[in-house]
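User: Continuing from earlier, I have the next pair ready.

Assistant: Great, send them over.

User: Here they are, in order.

Assistant: Folding the first of the pair now:
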Amino acid sequence: MNLEEIKNRLDIVEVVQKYVKLKRVGKYYSGLCPFHQETKPSFFVSPERQIFKCFGCGEGGNVISFLMKIENLSFKEVFEKIKEEYGLEIETSPKLEISKKILEINYAALKFFRSKLQEFSQAKNYLFKRGLNEEVIKFFELGYSPGGTLMRDFLYAQGYSLEEIKKAGLLDENNFDRFQGRIIFPLRNERGELIGFTGRIYPEKEKAPKYLNTPETKIFKKSEFLYGLFYAKEYIEKEKKTIVLEGQMDFLLAFKNGLKNVVSVSGSALTEAHLRKIKKYATVLVLAFDNDSAGFRAELRANLLAQKLDFKVFKLIYPEKDLGDFFQNKRDLKEIKEVVYLDFLFEKLKELYGKENKKDFLEIFLPQIKNLNLVEKDKYLTLLSQYLEIPKNILSEELQKIQELFFLTPEEEISKTFLPFEKNLSLKLVSLYYAFSFDVEEEDFYPFLDEEVKAFYLRMKEYKLNEEEIDNLEIKKRFFEETGINPEKEFKKTLKELKKIFYKNKIEKLREELKFSQNELYDKIVEEINSYLKELKKLEKNG
């Protein structure tokens, strides 16, 4: 039985009703979304199209994707569940076969790496010197890759082709072992599947990266992977709190010494995808990046992302540069303390800048409080006002400017998280327009739409949408009607947000151009930037 046949045999309403209390609304069913907290139903199921859609959090799909999401199952696991509960069996797709093959090769490679660590005593002694013991090495399955083509030859002898080994990310461009001369840390996802490896150079070599990860494969995405989550999730869920630190070694030492609700990221790049994974288990986030300038910057960024997802954010305080050093120095866990991140930051900036450098102080601190609730925001504005001796109303005005121009900050993550938001707003605007046929000129909103949504809008206008697209619009229309929103007010509010995004993007591009322009062109670009800034201020003033 193929995938389409499975979807046709499984009634989505019957499946969803096991998890969500549904109520018939016309030709749809609605209920409270199981994927986010809400008090009014924004979750709809279409028996005709056999799809679900939540207009609160954006989740949507078919019966297969619903089961994967609600049960936290892999593509492979969902079919095992379908077979077990519904007696249906599916043919495996080529993509699934590739993923299975990569997993199979990874397990074979791990067997090789672990055996080589037993033979290569220098690498093992290095791990002992770093504070690990035999029990930890065995439990976390650490290994070693000697070099040359030994691992490749081992896998080849097991019956795997060169192409298959390469697809698993285990060979370099010259078909040598990718991790040669490295201590191996296996990477298991939260379900325990062995999706890749990290290699730590040993012995040290000049011009070689200290750490090397499996490249992106069908099953490994670095920006989504958290080391140790598989081992720590039960402790995290119990405490509803996660400590995030840098690197595998720090994780292993923390776990060994009794700090078990921990995960680590590669480097210090905590992404929104990481945080969404953590959010399934915890509501409190404790930042424990290295006590250096890179760690400090990373925590600023992490706090903003965490605020967006409603985490309570704390900072882990310890004297050493990193947690690894802390445990190597045989410190006691009682010497570690947690403080509210913004309280820590306020004290840190006092130490760095004092009252003299008010500009730098505010440039760092104000963006960190921009998304707080009114009570918390007022608390920190009062602290700032008292310490820097600046009237609170002036600080509020400065904060407002930062709120307007926040997305101009050249952070790597913004491009990844901001554009989908723009697309989502554009779809909402077009859906409102479809549902209520406002008396508004196309030129007043069309230029501000996301490019993909522009194409969708034109097809909608020319009656060229397919059945599924029309059905989605009808579900949205029903949602707008059921929730009793003021459609015109919602349309204007959404358009205002889209205009803000449009102007901010324009300003950001122009500021990049400004770096490479001279004389008359420079003045012209500055003039353009100022004109867009004026438009932004107008929008806020008319708010």
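And the other member of the pair:
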Amino acid sequence: MNLISVDRISKSYGRDPLFTDISFGIAKGEKKALVARNGTGKTTLIRILAGLEQPDSGQVISRAGLKVSYLDQTDNFSTDGTILQIMLGSDTEEENALRAYETALITSQDMNSAIAKMDELNLWDYERKVKEILSKLGITDLNAPVSTLSGGQKKRVALARALMREADLLILDEPTNHLDLDMIEWLENFLQNPGLTLLLVTHDRYFLENVSDEILEIDRAELFKYPGNYANYLEKKAEREESEISSITKAKNKMRKELDWIRRQPKARGTKAKYRVDAFEDLKAVASQKIEENEIEPDIKMPRLGNKVIEIFNLSKSFETYSGERSLIKDFELSVQNNDRIGIIGPNGSGKSTLLNMIMGSEAPTAGKIVFGETVVAGYYRQSGGKFSDEQTVLSVIREAGEVIPLSNGRTITASQMLEKFLFPPGIQSRKVGKLSGGERRRLYLLTVLLQNPNLLILDEPTNDLDIATIAVLEDFLLTFPGCLIVVSHDRYFMDKMVSKLLVLQQSGQVLRFVGNYSDYLFSRENEKPVSHPSQNKNGDGAKSDKQARKKETKQQLKYSERIELKELEKKIPQKEAELQKLNQRMQASDLAFTEIENLSIDLNTLTLEIEKLSERYLMLSELDQQNS
């Protein structure tokens, strides 16, 4: 039996339907996820289920006494009071007793009666659970005033409060926003509890894969159901779209024949074969359907990028706290090359955004310096988003970059055409920015960054507020982006596809380097145990020589990160050699200008040196690998 059932509900804003006659149910223990493009009704639908909005038609049927815990994307609690007071904000007997006990701890008054009430209601485990969940989400000072919290900390308190409520149905809208990677993995495990009933909106594809047992998708005002996890959703969605394309193609072909028949009939025979005229209208409705293509093709002109992109020397950042000086980043050095795709990860508060701000010059380091290559043009996508006037239209925002935009092939494109390539059809281009969804605003902001013609992209949490379809489109573009990429993201799926190197920021201020993507790093962290160094025992020289032999053997073994690097080099060196061959062929052309010859010579020399360096590293790692095989 369903805890909650949706029966043929519809909802529109103005003339545009969000969804029409959709139905589904959620039974106890089920974990369903809802996906859709930004602005097509995800949040509206879950607000209807939470009782915060009403459908235009249809009904939502809930089991008698159903308790729903709902996490909104917006902060909806008072900034007065402490974190603990917010967590215990309801007026139930249990929460009043917990509040009285916490007050007694501070004031030392009425302690005996407070303890007695805690015993009577068996609340000691409840208090422990509150503190445990908050600590897993990076909140340790329960008496901190809410007014002192950052936006991300408030979101995590709101999530903790939603998880703590004794509810029959938990509804979460983008719960992974503002969580670091360890927090996301903890939340995954928490939500996998078989007794928990869940409706989830998220853009985190690994989260969908690991938590959901059915995915619901709103597409062109219809609801489609996909039993299983994210992998099954991708497979079945592709099958559905192929079937739709086939149906539309067949309808178009048949419509052409029917149109020819209708045109050949005498006008006086208006009533003859009316069934064929009616059937033609049905065909026309099918044939006129449009399958939206998820494809961004900016093809924006990009200046040539030299080999050296960024050099970072002895970079440090510290600040004063009430307990003394804290080092956020300590003695960090890095050389960024033109083909690098670097991901930055670390706990919340470890300095990821601060590092990007220092690289871009918007925040000063405590010590050290950062030097950019002469040809670098950087585009910086900030986590805070773009600053647009709500009264501007979408088209006017892009026209600020120019009415006509140059492309890499030497041609030009209008601002309106560029917006269409970025999934803003003409009907949306005249819309005011204030009317856009959060994801649409971020997509517009990303386009303004790309219109700067960067050859270095620095992205801080680019997937926040984007729907899955838009993230996939962004990934397709970034995979073909010929410049250098530096990205901070909590989206594990995105990081696995986009980066080949990681900088792992530690709470100590140290920065670890890792060759590979996030899943490689996670595997390494879970499986690579530290080498033990037993202390000297009474067996004297024999034990000592054994220990030295073990040390020698350990030194010769490849680390996991080096094994990954070796595999990468096996792919990378042939690719570089193919590039070198193409450059040599180009040098033989007879139509080259002097400047082209000069630039090609520089590229040839740079690439030759790079191949030599990679080959030396490959030989060294191969020898070590063979010694231990």
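Worth noting for the second one:
The longest helix spans residues 230-264. Residues 354 and 363 are 7 Å apart (CA to CA).
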